[in-house]
């Protein structure tokens, strides 16, 4: 229990500011009551998640959605609420100029504009004190022949090099990959291999971000996790879950066993050690469920998967593996997975002065009713705001 | 050649009004110059596609996007432009009430509202003289347990029965299925089996609509086509193509060989016979390509695949099949596929007084420049307008 | 607990005789010590699974692999061992004549031969007193054009009709579907829709068999289960699990949450009611794990998933669903899933005089060592024997 | 035409000795008349493919399937037949010792045995004068927890390093990757990223082999080709095609447009230049079609795709790409693809003194009838022989 508790203590899960705004699909974005109208209100919501779970101490920002005049004021506000500002996310996919790409666009003018935005994000990092710049590019093509696959890689490399040169010694560049969407034929950073190749070319401060929903059907994500930890380039997770494509459901909702296996590899590879720099973040769309509660549920799902992974009897596992005892080794893993860790987590929370059941405590608090009443008028936050 | 020409004469491809408006992904809708601002302008654009290809004589409407006060006036306008109004598409996915479903919603009030909209669409059909009502439901759930899978089927059946009872003797109800999106756990009509079961329960005027992009990875669509023709329930196609999910690319763009195989099964099963009631429609999103030209290219892709399928030496094919000559039978099919049918299609067009190269003729016409200059101000059409 | 215990009492899981023989992939079949050499030894092994789990009272046979001169003797032997003979599985895929198909083959001679084998299987059923004939056809094609998709459906329908006419009033014909393999372009019964269409054409004694590994990537199997129960045609399960294609791993090994959701729909639709005729069978390949222990683990996995599904607070679930409480409804389901049911199952076993931990008891029994020592010489059973 | 002819002249496609033997699925291997019974007869068949196509000058060997006492004699025999010995393929998947892995096995004894076999294959290369050693490992696990994912990578790296140290200056080590099968949970070299990481660690003589059937559903293979050519590590292709998993159908049979796109990227990246070291090989299973004819058809399919790719108007393509003309750029590509290149290829063959229609000429030759009559008795070659 001590070890498990210590492991849980080290598990900090960053929530993204945009998860508190409205989101949806191309068919419809459904509005919800109480949704934030500015970055401050987003941070207030994020602080609730931390207040009840004790495991979500930082908030990721998205530029320009969370652009403010005074980042110091935003940081101070966050601190007052009990959280801190975290990763800065760049956005080079929502301007009409980016229809055919941003940093990989055939037109140098568009590439310049996109790269300048990335550099501006580093300025924001300097202002917020953020360690990480997370780059996701929607760049790609929809039709065979539309653009030159290889030339786009060269353009990407050039832009990344410029950004990499700009970040400070204590800052990192996270390069996220995604199988497809919004590009439907080629995507310029479609897999971990591509992301890693660029990171290796850049240098040690460039690391791969694994979004758990960004893979081809059937892909073994924990294998990728093990592989990236082995070469020292697993930078971060964007957690969410999916049944089909990039469904962006709450992490652990679609396949809790997979999440457990992923956390097992994280721990196995040192990703939860005291000196680990792996960042754990949520990135999902609460299209139909309440935002704050959805984030809380997600944080708890990661905690439960981690607690189960920490419960694995590693000595027994290794012994079974080395003796070729297929069912025995699998059984050791399943014993941990089949354990109900909710009591253990309630205990962990209570030891920290928190409620054992964060969801019940949050619902009892009346926060949702309060913000629903207060946040009337103005523009609700969403993608693009 | 005579047979091929006759086959092509029977191939009428309906284009959808919404394809002329802006479309996009959840990340961004990119605006294009010259995009229509009302149903009349959409019809004008659709008429261009028909004027140059000679194969797109009707336009599908989407209610409420194409709602007008006077459908007779809209029909007359279409006739003036050289086209006619076609299938009526219902929309029960863009109202906040439909967040958890429309006709399958747990709340009877929402179901009533949704069904009423479907009935209203039949009123529109009566006004436009349309034969077909096409129903696609975005209904489904995102999380296990969210709703009762089976109860939703019962609710769906109830709503469909009410609509079926309302349509006239010469009208049809097309029930479209879709693998997933925007629902990410269950979809209430996810596959052809479900659609067919409901059609069988309703009666002979209920038919299945096959959207070529709405299947699980690897699904053999031509098999489904053969199966539905065999039981007399293939009602219509929504054509588009995809590499990943429901990418909604131009039909024939991602896998032209698949489109050829589909058209081969259509012809094999009588779907292009003189008395066939199979409707051929486009339903795709031109996110990054010009709209009118994209529709023209799509119509031509269907024509090319059909011409190749009509070229198959069916006697030689049957002989090879019956003798178990695997490579011989495959070779007969490939001989047709490998033929360059573009000269043949140019000839067919020229025999009708059209330009042999529709794209070149359209580009030379200056139509895009004209509408780009004229259609300034107002709200561009798109999903939701 | 009483209800759960009663539900578990009704859960009888049939194990297949061939699971006790060697199996493998196209690359290699690895031989294991102690593998049976004839149907009697297979039954002896199957009896072990029942002896320790108390939940596997019948054994499925595969003809001709389990062909014997005297089925009454085989049945009597089974009874002595504490089990009974169950479903008869036909095999029309391992004769050189079936290279291009069996009942769908273009050559009537081959079709006749295949249908005769099916009829012979009904003779075996009469001799063994089996209720179910399970039909799986490997029939399909590898290359476009190789054979006529629709003609093959007609041939299939003809053969099925002949077999259906032959079975008795208390017998059933189960038609299994499979997405692909060993055919790689078309498969003649590839999905539940095709299987159901044939069953509907045959009559009420024809039912669909759902093999949990036989679907396209991403397919929602519990939806199919709900759908088939709704129309009264869910005949049976072939349980196994998969990460990729038809991997045939132990059921519950790849995605225990999916198995739980499936059992929830089974229960919701009455499939575990006292009068249910749904058959629960294992059909998997223990390529690298010990056979008997692998079957035991699988039976226990189904029991655990069922126990969790029986634990669902259905009143709370319905209330949350009806009020549109997405996270609440999902939470009710997850509460059951997250419960550790192993103590409950141990109790259930002990109440029946069995060991609480079947695997430990079996391993302690020395059975594997015994058969490994005894079963030397002769030909080990496997696919084709 | 001159350029196209020169490009085709450089396109040498290696055929694999095992393609001439019987193959099948885990369900059944169907025997065919005339199938070779030893390596010499395989080479005689391979020589036929070259004799008629003029494009298949070398034959890959598989050790131990093609083990002979005197490789010089085998090489001389090949030369007499008009072909040469090519790539050496290792086999560490068909010994009972390899049930849980070969070079990644937890037991050092098994790893030693496997590595020794790889070293033995280099001895064979020295004897045959082969440039390439192709390594494919079936290694992986079936169940979560079965073995340590990361430790297996370390063991793999160690074995590869030993082999790499053994190969000569003019020899190469090709590392093939495969998504899954025969392992069904993890595969130790599942993707191009893993293969490339190991190659980078080894040195410049280690290159990636791309098998076109070894990817997750939806994977964009031409992107991988472009990426590997960009970093100078595309070593070879194993050509085949698939609709589902690793179906191993004839290359170009399932998706001829994809093959064209792949060859376009090969040419774009210099892979068909005079100084290119990219090896083009077939690796497919002719389960139901005649072997020699199947190989011929495959060679021709690659030639047709290559000829179309060579026809692309690269200047027009680049101009359209750079101006952001999506449909124009796609149109340039499609113009080449839609061209019927069969006359051009017939001309190319006739200029070399070959028949314009290789299949017809081969069938007229009576070779299949001859070997069917002669090759009676003995054991037909297949996987494992």
Map the helices and strands.
Four copies of one chain form a homotetramer.
Chain A: H1 2-10, E1 13-16, H2 39-53, E2 58-62, H3 71-81, E3 84-89, H4 108-128, E4 132-135, E5 140-141, H5 149-166, E6 172-176, E7 186-187, H6 192-202, E8 206-211, H7 221-230, E9 234-239, H8 256-268, E10 279-282, H9 291-311, H10 314-322, H11 326-338, H12 342-351, H13 358-365, H14 367-374
Parallel strand pairs in A: 1-2, 1-10, 2-3, 3-4, 4-6, 6-8, 8-9, 9-10
Antiparallel strand pairs in A: 5-7
Helix pairs in contact in A: 1-9, 2-3, 2-9, 4-5, 7-8, 8-9, 9-11, 10-11
Protein name (chains A, B, C, D): L-rhamnose isomerase/sugar isomerase
Keywords (chains A, B, C, D): Cytoplasm, Isomerase, Manganese, Metal-binding, Rhamnose metabolism
GO molecular function (chains A, B, C, D): L-rhamnose isomerase activity; metal ion binding
Task: Summarize the entry for a quick read.
Chain A has a single domain (8-307), classed as Divalent-metal-dependent TIM barrel enzymes (TIM Barrel, Alpha-Beta Barrel), CATH 3.20.20. Helix content of chain A is 46%, strand content 11%.
């Amino acid at each position: 229990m001590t070890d498990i508790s210590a492991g849980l203590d080290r598990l900090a899960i960053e929530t993204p500011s945009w998860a508190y705004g409205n989101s949806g699909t191309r068919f419809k974005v459904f509005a919800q009551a109480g949704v934030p109208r500015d970055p401050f209100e987003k941070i207030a919501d994020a602080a609730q998640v931390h207040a009840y779970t004790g495991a979500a101490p930082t908030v990721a920002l998205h530029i320009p959605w969370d652009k403010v005049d005074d980042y110091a004021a935003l940081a101070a506000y966050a601190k007052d609420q009990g959280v801190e500002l975290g990763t800065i996310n760049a956005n080079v996919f929502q301007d009409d100029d980016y229809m055919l790409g941003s940093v990989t666009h055939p037109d140098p003018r568009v590439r310049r504009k996109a790269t300048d935005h990335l550099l501006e994000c580093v300025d924001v990092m300097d202002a917020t004190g953020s360690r990480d710049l997370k780059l996701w590019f929607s760049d790609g093509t929809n039709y065979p022949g539309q653009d030159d696959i290889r030339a786009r890689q060269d353009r990407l490399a050039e832009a990344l090099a410029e950004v990499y040169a700009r970040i400070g010694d204590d800052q990192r560049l996270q390069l996220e990959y995604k199988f497809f969407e919004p590009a439907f034929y080629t995507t310029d950073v479609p897999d971990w291999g591509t992301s890693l190749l660029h990171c290796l070319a850049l240098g040690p401060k460039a690391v791969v971000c694994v979004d758990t929903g960004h893979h081809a059907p059937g892909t073994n994500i924990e294998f990728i996790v093990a592989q990236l930890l082995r070469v020292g380039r697993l930078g971060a997770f964007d957690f969410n879950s999916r049944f089909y494509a990039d469904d962006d459901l709450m992490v652990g909702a679609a396949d809790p066993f997979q999440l457990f296996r992923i956390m097992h590899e994280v721990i196995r590879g040192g990703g939860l050690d005291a000196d680990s720099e792996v960042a754990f973040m949520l990135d999902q769309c609460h299209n139909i469920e309440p935002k704050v509660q959805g984030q809380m549920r997600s944080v708890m799902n990661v905690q439960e998967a981690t607690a189960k992974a920490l419960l694995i009897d590693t000595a027994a596992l290794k012994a079974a593996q080395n003796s070729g005892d297929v069912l025995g080794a699998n059984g050791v893993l399943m014993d941990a997975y089949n354990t109900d860790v909710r009591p253990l987590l309630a205990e962990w929370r209570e030891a920290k002065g928190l409620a054992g059941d964060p969801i019940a405590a949050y619902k009892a608090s009346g926060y949702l009713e309060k913000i629903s009443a207060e946040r009337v008028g103005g523009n609700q936050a969403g993608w693009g705001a």
